[in-house]
Amino acid sequence: MSEAQTKRVIGPLGAISIVAGSMLGIGVFLSPPLVAKALPAALPYFGVWVLAGLSALAGAVACGELGAMMPQAGGDYVFQRRAFGPSAAFASGWVLFGAIFTGSVAALAVPVCQYQLPVLLGPLARLIAGPEAQVDLSAAALGPLTWTQLIAMGLVWGFTALNLLGARLAAWAQTLMTLTPVALLSLGALYALLGGAPLGAAAPPPPPESPMGWSSWVAAWGPVYFAYAGWNAVIYVAGEVERPSRNIPLGLIGGTLLITALYLLLNGAFVEVLGFGGIASSFEVGTATAAALGGDVAKVGITALIASALLASLNTTILGGARVAMAMAEGGALSGFFARTNPRGVPARALIFQAAWACVLIVSGTFEQLLSLVSLAMMICGSLTVASLFVLRVIRPREERPYRATGYPLLPAFYLLSSGAVVVLSLWEAVRAPEWSGWFPMFGLGLMVVVFLAHLAWSHIPRARAQG
Questions:
Q1: What is the per-residue pLDDT across 440-468, written as a single tens digit (0 to 9) for each?
Q2: Angle in degrees, CA 316, 320, 325, rounded to 5
Q3: Which of 345, 396, 397, 435 could form a disulfide with 7 if both were Cys (CB 3.0 to 4.6 A apart)?
Q4: Contact 44, 212 (CB under 8 A)
């Protein structure tokens, strides 16, 4: 899409909402029990959340400079192509569009229908069919397809249709779906912290303190690190952001700080209501906290907020994934078919293909395996993007940089160190896995390397022929 065709319609609030909505998901409710089981006390527990927030902020400032410098759709693909060449960008782009974004679309749509929707429909079912009625969406609905799969596919196509209507409307919806749960979750957390939660004595005792070694930090760091994923979301739609030199860094940094503050506030409420031991003994702390505060009514309310947060993440994932495909098509890494835009300036063909592929993953039930396969490659991809900042500072020192990364080089280097630690730990876990499925991430990383080498070799063939 040429600059003349680009419609810059996403303002500062939309940019912040895209980042915050992409970050805020089920992770903040599922990760705390895993962290509390790994660490002996509340102080290191909060320390891990602070450090992971700092890591996300470090990545955000790096991408803020890159996005303001190259305000084009495609994010990682665009930056890595400039810094490392087309072969590295090709490998990252294929992993991003073919697996990470489409797999994430399926992985967000299915849980909403599997876990949140039955809880939300429960009161209506009990009102109609009696107090014992339960909503089961796992039952067959159309041939081998279950209600969960059908509704999940409906959500995918519904949000795809919303995005086809233009980035402005998608950004407005994103703002509404993000700021509503952020505001209400903040109010709920403040209520719990300021005396609305009478629970402390009823909470289970904390787990016995034990010496905290590296294994404790390893077990705690991974879940929290992934709870912060999504801090870079706005770089994929950078070509449609108004005043990109200002609003891209603002969206990245503002959204990351907003969600970091919310995560710390929520964790304070979890500790206040459930106690540290209560967190460790829970499966999902949002529902457990709501049940402690107000029973079924609060449970339905918190479930609605979780569903809203997941739908916001679904919208921004659909928004970003198609732009990666468009950037790849414009760079020659994909068919020009994916570069075509509709009259509203959005990559319609890429959006429709993405939705269709996500639905295949939903029907086949393979999206979890796919995301497991590329989990290591995903982390490598993010690290390469931040590393692009250092490379471009060296090879293009005089290029205009409307925003220069705050805390450079220390803060971006901290991101590389923290993400590198996650990569090493994940490799170690994969090597130690007792079942062959534990090696999935190794296979995905190997596939990314093979794609890179194959593209590198293929790109040298015309040059070799010309020299011959």
A1: 788 888 888 998 999 888 887 765 555 55
A2: 155
A3: 345
A4: yes
| 302-349 per-position pLDDT tens digit | 889 889 989 999 999 999 999 999 999 988 888 889 999 999 889 999
In the beta sheet, which residues pair with residue 296? none
**465 residue type, one letter:** R
d(CA 179, CA 172): 11
CATH topology for 12-461 is Amino acid/polyamine transporter I (1.20.1740)
Write the pLDDT tens digit of every residue in 21-54: 999 988 898 899 999 988 878 889 999 999 999 9
- Three-state DSSP class for residue 134: coil
Q: What is the CA radius of gyration of the chain?
A: 22
Contact 383, 416 (CB under 8 A): yes
pTM score, whole prediction: 0.90
Label residue 334 left, alpha or beta by phi (over 0 means left) and psi (-120 to 50 means alpha): beta
Amino acid present at 380: I
Q: Of 323, 343, 344, give the one whose Cα is nearest residue 334.
A: 323
